[in-house]
Amino acid sequence: MKKGCNKIKDSKVEFKKNFRDVLDGKDVDITPVGTVTTSGVLELMDISGASRPEADRDPEKMAQLAGSLYTSAKLEIVRFPFDVTVLGQAMGCEIDPGTKARTPSIMSHPFKNNPQDICVPSDLLERGRIPVILEAARILSNKEGKYVPCLAGLEGPADLASYLCGIKPLMLLSIKKPELVSAIIDKCVEACIEYANACIDAGADAVVIADAMASPDMVGPDVFRQLIRPGLQRIAANIKGYRILHICGKVDSILPDMMECGFHAISIEESVDIKKAIKLAHEKKVAVIGNVSPAQTLYDKSTDKVISESISCLENNIDILAPGCGVAPETPLKNLHAMVKARNMYHGLEK
Q1: Residues 6+ away with beta carbon under 8 Å from 166
Q2: If you compute the radius of gyration of the chain from its CA atoms, what whole number of angstroms results?
Q3: 105-106 and 95-96: which strand pairing?
Q4: Across all residues in the chain, what is the average pLDDT?
Q5: Are 108 and 94 in contact (CB under 8 A)?
Q6: In the predicted structure, residue 45 carries a pLDDT above the cut 80
Q7: Residue 180, SS3?
Q8: Given pLDDT bands bounded at 50, 70 and 90, which one contains residue 350?
Q9: Of the chain's two ends, which shows fewer C-beta atoms within 10 Å, N or C?
Q10: Contact 19, 77 (CB under 8 A)
Q11: Peptide bond preceding 81 in cis form (omega within 30 of 0)
Q12: Does the global pTM surpass 0.85?
């Protein structure tokens, strides 16, 4: 996935082709820059006139805020929605809707006492906020989606299982009744596949499966291999379009397993050994996305520091320059601009 330094054609449509070429393992002239993780930034809310929590529930406002990642932040990827609790809510979890500066969060675990009863509702796509996200995908595909790729994000099967059962009960079950956890994951996989394909049918160019619960910070590598990896492989095999896997934390111990899951790309945090990740991924024809620190750098440092860290990622041959995880709402817009500037400087597009 070696990149040259030729200037990108002066065409907005080129951004979509550039993204697809990267995920197809083709050489590109310029590294795409954007975000594949959650990114509801306060300044963008003010500029776009679309603020959360309304933008979490209204498809027009969701599309407005997501589109501002391109129109105002100058990123070349649009990512929506702005949280990863949509499937959990649709399958029975109560959520705290959050505020302008705080994303929705899971408040209840409906199958905590009877995990064996988890099933995918026959009307899943009509539940909770799923219709909102699908309508936002349709709106975006006819607006910013004409020029840049639009990515739909959703929680992965391990995250969804933890929402439905509770984290501690699920972890105990993984020790005492691993066969039950496997059955739970299978049900969650079914839900992920149905929802992901609906997003692509509605106009999303790719889906991002974000699975924090699959991290070695939460479960051991053996649990990942035995109980989670098979589900992720089934998701990848059954999603109609481009697919990206994001797992939070220091995932070095499961990097080879992530490469075997069947996704076009993986998204990694700054704690991961980027050289090792890229070497392993490129051997398997998998792209790597990241890994500018959202908390330590984008949120808290100067634009010069953002540029320096971004250049370091590019020098390590990152395939898509992006934040390593979700972007904090208070992140300065100038720091998102700085990532774009760094990419342009690296490719000789500006000084």
Answers
A1: 109, 112
A2: 19
A3: antiparallel
A4: 95
A5: yes
A6: yes
A7: helix
A8: confident
A9: C
A10: yes
A11: yes
A12: yes
